[in-house]
Amino acid sequence: MSHVSDLIEKDIEAYLHSHQHKSLLRFITCGSVDDGKSTLIGRLLYDSKMIFEDQMAALESDSKKVGTQGGEIDFALLVDGLAAEREQGITIDVAYRFFSTDKRKFIVADTPGHEQYTRNMVTGASGAELAVILIDARKGVLTQTRRHSFIVSLLGIRNVVLAVNKMDLVGFSKETFDKIVADYRTFANRIGLADIVAIPISGLRGDNIAQPSTSMPWYTGPALMAHLETVEIEDRLQHAPFRFPVQWVNRPNLDFRGFAGTIVSGSIGSGDKIRALPSGRESRVTRIVTMDGDLPRAVAGQSVTLTLADEIDVSRGDVLAGTESPPEVADQFETTVIWMADEPLMPGRPYWLKIGTRTATATLAEPKHKINVNTMEKLPAATLALNEIGVCNLALDRAIAFDPYASNRDTGGFILIDRFTNATVAAGLIHVALRKAQNIHWQALDVNKAARAALKGQKPCVLWFTGLSGSGKTAIANLVEKRLLSFGRHTYLLDGDNVRHGLNQDLDFTETGRVENIRRMAQVASLMVDAGLIVLVPFISPFRAERQLARGLFEPGEFFEIHVDAPLAVAEARDPKGLYRKARRGELKNFTGIDSPYEAPEKPEITLDTTRNTVTESADRIVEALRKAGILAGSH
Question: Catalytic: 541?
Fold first, then answer.
């Protein structure tokens, strides 16, 4: 909705022209719960004459039914659209509102104050240029105030309005306001927030919102609306180096091949030289194509299709950049991670990483430290829990083009996604590429897997046995190996207990330790398959994510997931090592099936029911499956 202007009646074309050319400010409201963020935005909409008559009537009716102001107008209801929010009187989701004045257009994100919804605040802040941080004048600076301010600083928002709200409830006290501002500035200086404008307000009464307050004559600064209309926002994107993440390769016919996407920074002109990354190939732009015709030049924010003079290999996820200042390319980084999932970070577990239009598989190392948002102290951490912020090294399965987040949000910011639930579990910021990533390269070798396998006269593969302790994995794997050796096959059995005496003796049985245990074994099995062997891996491997990581290390047809299925009661009754009895007595922690979960395979290559089949029958099934797959061609 647009601000009601006299020009609408007098000269509609002049009005539309002026409205089209107004600058746009994106800002967020954030702070602790019940600091009055939704009420403030409602008041801004009301004072800007942004509410239609029917909306006003509905607001008055809702205020009497579910409002929190004793029947008076509850401006928060203009923003708190979810039924759960209205019932609880809080903001849960991020609510976006557009409004405008004669001087500027605005998009405001009302972000939740509760700690459990910090992930929503990160979402709202990711595209903002200014943050309005509210503080309840009765409560002062709280932990969530510091957390949101720290996130604002991390995400590169440099323009901050400190709105000390509910001044009417502290008698419009200048002393209270000055103390809160002094406390906040002390904290803000430690996190790098310097451009702070402090304004005492009452969102409910409208003091210092659209007009200066007569109740606080001691305040001589601008009202909030006046500041939002006039604050200068540096247009860094327009002047930054050219970056164009490729969204889609447009090939409607044999005569046209273009690369579609949105310019995230800088500008590009027809004839300009570009570099495609990570490949490093160069070419020149021949056309800048849009629905409305070709452009001589395009700038940040525009969605275009670029055609190039040369047929270089470019695909979705690649970045086209200017040759004078291209981004870096690496596959290992130091990052800051804001963890947003109920389940904690699992170092070594694979996640999807989404940066720009590129998706890659990422693993995080154990955090270097996490950050206490109250003291900014760096604390040791083995993992990150919900809403915790830490610094972690991150490794990808492929090299990507990137900029440090401080230089470019779009090519330096990423999210992490759970590979099974598709839930976003974290937001992250790239600091630098790790030096070891620049020094380590794949070495070309003359003898490859095919040559090694040919020497042994076999097709290499891995047989990955998974199931509860006591299900029969090792017994079956042991008999299968004997059969394979009798056929003259070259094998190796990686037993779970045996490797913990050596290679993995430093790992415990916590969930994190078990994830790393499987990661290492998958890598070892991959090397052995590369050596031309048939590898048998009888591991409980309770988590699907790690088994999927293992599968991803092998070529199609090389990985056989074998689910050795036995109900918990049956496995516990067998209990060949006495482990279940120890777990029941509390002597073994994190034991699969007792106090740690087992995630059964969804689509294994082979399922063995060991309550119905003997070890011999199970081994026969595996051998027959390998024969059908061509692994044992020529064996009798």
Answer: yes
